[in-house]
Amino acid sequence: MTLPVEVSFYSVSDDNAPSPYMGVINLESLGKRGYRIPPSGTIQVTLFNPNKTVVKMFVVVYDLREMPASHQTFLRQRTFSVPVRRDIIGHTNRKSLPLSQERILRYLIHLRFQSSKSGKIYLHSDIRLLFSRKSMEVDSGAAYELQSFTESPADPPFSPRC
């Protein structure tokens, strides 16, 4: 299925960090409840530019088999560019840096889920995306890798629908 994305640009800082675009995919056209999905699986969202070339392919694995009927939750996947340190000999050193140190947010996808009274699971309301203006606005001479982290509410993992 192909859905349009409404995109806005934000200029949020004066430092060297790239300013993001925010995209919103409205799911209301798919019905009152949203888009029905299996209780567990993989969601793939491919973001295209106006020339129909791929900007980013988001792949999010989810497992909502424990979600009670008439509840809601979300998943958020953040992708950062993280410098890869090289030692004197030139080997790559992939030691983890502290979570906030030297990483730059490149992409984010926010998915909202709800369950019906009968326990069916739906992707609902909208899908929100953040992405950089350019694919990699970093020092081209430095080594970087992309690292993704998926998070969801922990305590409680699900909340009753209003």
TrEMBL record:
<dbReference type="InterPro" id="IPR033473">
    <property type="entry name" value="Atos-like_C"/>
</dbReference>
<protein>
    <recommendedName>
        <fullName>Atos-like C-terminal domain-containing protein</fullName>
    </recommendedName>
</protein>
<dbReference type="Pfam" id="PF13889">
    <property type="entry name" value="Chromosome_seg"/>
</dbReference>
<dbReference type="GO" id="GO:0005634">
    <property type="term" value="C:nucleus"/>
</dbReference>
<dbReference type="InterPro" id="IPR051506">
    <property type="entry name" value="ATOS_Transcription_Regulators"/>
</dbReference>
<keyword id="KW-0539">Nucleus</keyword>
<feature type="domain" description="Atos-like C-terminal">
    <location>
        <begin position="104"/>
        <end position="161"/>
    </location>
</feature>
